[in-house]
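User: For this week's homework, look closely at the record that follows, marking any run of repeated tokens, and judge whether sequence predicts the tokens.
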Amino acid sequence: MTTVGFLLVPGLHLLDLAGPAQVFSTARDLGHDYALAYVSEQAEVPTAQGLPVHADPELPALAPTDLLVVPGWRSPTLRGTGQLEQRTLDWVAAHHRAGGTVASVCSGADVLGRAGLLDGRRCTTHHALQDELARRYRRATVVRDVLYVVDGRVVTSAGIASGIDLALHLIAVRHGPAAAAQIAREMVVYARRNGDEQQSSAMLRHRGHLSDAVHRIQDLIDQRYAERLLLADLAGEGGVSERTLTRQFSRATGLTPLGYQQALRLERAEHLIGHGSTTQAAARAVGFEDARMLRRLRAR
């Protein structure tokens, strides 16, 4: 069981909290082992939108596998807002020191800064707060105009709705991109956006349709893209003929099932090559018998 703990600061923005909470709650509904916890220095926390939320005033013990998230609060400036006691900041720092991951949404990055977690790291926050964050934490590198930044076990995101993108990224890292795509679909978020990498995903670029039958076949291909998948087997899974599957799939995505699988393989191979893998090793990792097909796809 992985606990996702949300540290609630008075004046917090509801969507900063609700977006990531919905992602992990949906992950739990889909069979992933998550428990959500809400903690604060006070039992009732006022929000920027006027709806108070309840939290546990006792700071729990977190395991290294647990995730701690700090949603943002109403903050035209960071200075003088988001006040927390030193014991709470020490608790945040101790979780990271013990091997845990700490994440923030919007102005929540300021809590990470006060806990000493931004020193020597890349980070981001809401565009209106980037200059101030850079001034307050001069040993940090504030990355502008991105949705989220991952630096080791410190993950920071931009404003408000970007917390959903951050949470889906963490799901993809822990459980694979197919799990993130399934959760995005359940939440009717058809385009999971990447952080400071390419703003397009081969998988989700072709998910903006409403055909449940095609989504089910895509789910299967997403999970087994490195395997040899026969059109007849895919058609059998969909309960249609091969010709009908190809027609429906092409109408919904603009690709054949094989073309979609190759797009997934190519994107994954490009990622591996970009991180130091040889072309031959990348080709084998994504399911090609040798590098010739990968080279042809890359050349296109």
Observations:
- Residues 2-178 form a domain with the Rossmann fold fold (CATH 3.40.50.880).
- The radius of gyration is 21 Å.
